[in-house]
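Researcher: Here's the sequence for the chain we discussed earlier.
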Amino acid sequence: MVKIFECGSVVPGCKFVIHAEERDDALDKAVEHLHSVHDIEHFSAQLKERICAVIRDASVRPIG
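Model: Thanks. This is the structure I predict for it:
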């Protein structure tokens, strides 16, 4: 199932969305985006946990 990462869930106001076949691919692309666009250099365990927490299946709609 396709996984989706919406950067705005981590960086308010960012409209960038990632679609990937695997969760690990979505995480890798999210880290690359956050580094290159938002100049985040260090990815703490807490930040990686936050990224993983907001990666969802494409068929699941966020609440709210």
